[in-house]
Structures are given as structure tokens and as C-alpha cells.
Amino acid sequence: MRMKFFLDSANLEEIKYAIKKWKIDGITTNPRHLMVAGMTVEDFAREVKELVEGTHITVSLEVNPHLEDPKEIVDQATSLASLSNNFVIKIPATESGFEALAELSSKGVKVNITLVFNLVQALQAARLGAYYISPFVGWREERGELNTDFINQIVKAVKGYGYSSQIIVAAVRSAKHFVEAALAGADIVTAGFQVYKRAFDNPYTRMGLQIFSDAWNSIYGR
Length: 222
Ligand code: E4P
Fold this sequence. Notes:
Blueprint: E1 4-8, H1 12-22, E2 26-28, H2 31-37, H3 41-52, E3 58-62, H4 70-81, E4 87-92, H5 95-106, E5 111-116, H6 119-127, E6 132-135, H7 137-142, H8 148-160, E7 166-172, H9 175-184, E8 188-191, H10 193-200, H11 203-220
Parallel strand pairs: 1-2, 1-8, 2-3, 3-4, 4-5, 5-6, 6-7, 7-8
InterPro entries: Aldolase_TIM (IPR013785), TAL/FSA (IPR001585)
Organism: Thermotoga neapolitana (strain ATCC 49049 / DSM 4359 / NBRC 107923 / NS-E)
Protein name: Fructose-6-phosphate aldolase
């Protein structure tokens, strides 16, 4: 399997751009992105559905983070999932979240277990049938932790035991996180719009273009 690129955003203009120009493979969002975009999860679901239906693009939508009762998590997740086949429902890596996951996977609802910060959480998510598992590398790094072993261990363990869950390296902040994800064999990276913009724009590429443009001018006399 090849590594996919997902956009982490609730901004519909960014999403349209990334689908059209970058052929992005999927979208992830969270309540913070919705707040910035000024939308409820229901509003966002309605709008984004129009953009992705009929494509392979999955959209991960998060349940209300206040929910602690697994039954309430299952109810909201089921209702969001029923809106589109492209939707995958984000549920936190908590004990209640795992209980809800078990129920949802048995009903065929695709779940993205989010806020994963250790291998045990990742393995529990895989055991219970998570479709995606999202370890947050940026948040760990901001607190002084190294990520290379962290991602390697999760990918090695989940794949080694033969679970079908796909690993999304999340909260990606730089091109370096793409390198770590790819070398670990992660399935997916999800990053914000500006992270992609910065990663696609390399100063050496621009410097090389200047050198080649000057050479072109010498040849053609411009
Ligand atoms: C991923 O699924 C999350 O939405 C995301 O990466 C969270 O982190 P951030 O909003 O701090 O980037």
C-alpha cells in the first residue's frame, strides 16, 4: 500500500483547492477546525458531502468531545455515518471511546480513533476494528518527545499482527514528519493546508529555476 495524503481542515475553500489541485486522498477535521471555519459538525457534513460524494475521498468527522457515555457516542457516530458512505467517525482513544468502537465496528461503521499517544491505545483500537488510527506526532513533539520510534512501533505492531486498521500520522507540522511517516511505512499523513504549501515549496527548487531561467535567457537572448 502507498502512503496517502489527507488534508486536516474544515475550511471548504481549502478542501476544494486540495481536491482539485493536489488530488488529496482524504479529509480529516476536528472541533477546533470547525470552530475556525465557524461551522457545526452537521453544517460541515452537509457541505463537504457535496464535494466528496462519488469519489474515493474519505472525510473523518469527530463526535462531540463532551460525550462520555459509550451509548451516546455510538448514537452520534451512527447518525453522522448515515449521512454519507465517505464519512469515517472520529472517536477519542478513551475507555468509553473503545467501548463505542467495538459496537460501531460490529455495525459496520468506519471509525477513526483519534488522540492516540501510545502503543497500547493503538493496539486496542486495532483489536476492536478501527478503520483508521491517528497518533498525534506534532503534539508529542511540542512537548519534547521524539516520534520516530513512536510511529515505527505503532506501524510495526499493528501491521505485524495483521490488523487491517490504517495508521494516519496526524498533527503533522512539517516535511520532516512526512519523512518519518513514510520511512515507518505509515498508511496516511494528515496535515494542514499551510504545511503542504510549505512542504511543496522548496527554496532549492526556486534557486534552481532561477539558474535555469538565466541559462535559458542566454540561449534565447532574452
Ligand atoms: C487529525 O486528525 C487531527 O485533526 C489533527 O491533526 C489535530 O491536530 P492539530 O489540529 O493540532 O493539527
